[in-house]
Design a protein that fits this description.
single chain; 372 residues; alpha+beta; Thrombin, subunit H; Pdz3 Domain; 3 domains; six-stranded antiparallel β-barrel; six-stranded antiparallel barrel; 6 helices; 17% helix
Amino acid sequence: MRKTTLRRALCVLTALLLFAGAGACAESPSYDIIYSDSNPIPAIAARCRPAIVEITSSMESWNAETRQSSVEAMSSGSATFIRADEDGKGGYLLTNYHIVKEGDVFEALWLDGTEMPITLVGYDDGTDIAVMRFEDAAPEGVKVIPLGDSDQLQIGELAICIGNPGTAREVLYGTVTAGIISGLQREDINAGNFSRSVSVIQTDAPINSGNSGGALLNAKGELVGIPTLKMGMTYADVFEGLSFCIPISAVKDYVDQLIDNGKVVRPRMGVTVASIDGPDEAMRRYPPCGAQVVTVETGAPADLAGLIVNDVITEVNGTRVKSSTDVVNAVDKCADGESITIKFYRYQYDADGSLLPGYEEKETSLTLKLLD
C-alpha cells in the first residue's frame, strides 16, 4: 500500500514538473543563451559565413581539329575574404594553392549566390597559400574576416571551421563545424601540400574535401588558420577528428608580399634540413635533437660557411632550435644580406652509414641571400 501511494505521488510530482516546465517554455521562448559568451558560435557564423566563398578552378584547352576552345572545371574549394579596397569595389581572397595551381580561369561564388570572376595574384607553394583578387564589389553587408594571432592559440580552446564541403554534384555551402584546438606545431603532416617545413594546427573540428582554403576561426571570430588537409584512413586504420590547418601567423607576412609584389621572396642558407630526434644535449653516441643537414647547395651561403651533410644545427643566432621548422622559421625572419650565427654538431659515419662515437661542436657565421 505504501509503495503504491509513493509511486502515485511520484507520478503526480513528475507530471506537475513536466507541466510547469512546458508552461515556462511557452511563456518565455528565450534563446538568448545561444548568443551569450558561453556560446559565441551562432554570432560568429552569422558574421563570417558570408565572407567564405567557393572557388572554382578551370583549365582552358584548344582543339586544333575543331579550332574551338573549351573550359573544363578542374577543382574547387573555399577561400576567405581578408582585405577590401578602400573604395569597396574590389578585394582579396586567401585560399590554398593546391586548389588553383592547375587552373587558368577562376570564379568565386558567394554565399548569397553572387558569382564573379577572380584572378590569381600570387602563390607560395612552400606553404600552400594563394591570394586571389576580385574587381567587383563584394555582396552587400559582407565584411572582411580579421586576421588573428595563431601563436596565441592554446590546446583545448574553441575552434570553428567554415567552408564548402561536398562533391561536384552537390556542395554544402557555408558549412560550420566546431571543435577544439587538439594540437599545435604538428610537424611532418604533409600530403604533398608543402615544399617547405610547415608546423600545422591540429583540430577535431570536422573538415572535408571542399573545406580547403576556408577558415579556422577562434572564439573572437578571427582567422587563425587555413584548413588544408585531414587524416582519413590508411590500409590498416580509420581516423576521426584529425584535421590540420596552416597557422595564419606563419603566412601573414607572405600574404602581404603576395598582395604587394605577387610573389614571396625569402632569405636562404642553401640547405635542406630534416628534424632529428635526440637528447637535448649532445652525447658521444647520440646526436642532439635539432635540424640535420640533408643537402647543401654548392656555392650557397651554408656551403661557403663550411656546413656539410649530416651536420646537426642546434642554434640560430643564439636561439635553441629543435626541428627543421625551427630553423626555417628563424631564417625566414631574417633579411637579405643579414649575417647569422649557426651552432652545429658534426658526427662521423662509417662506410655503411653507422654512427661512430664522438663529435665536434662547431660554430660558423654566414650571410643570407634571397630565394625567389
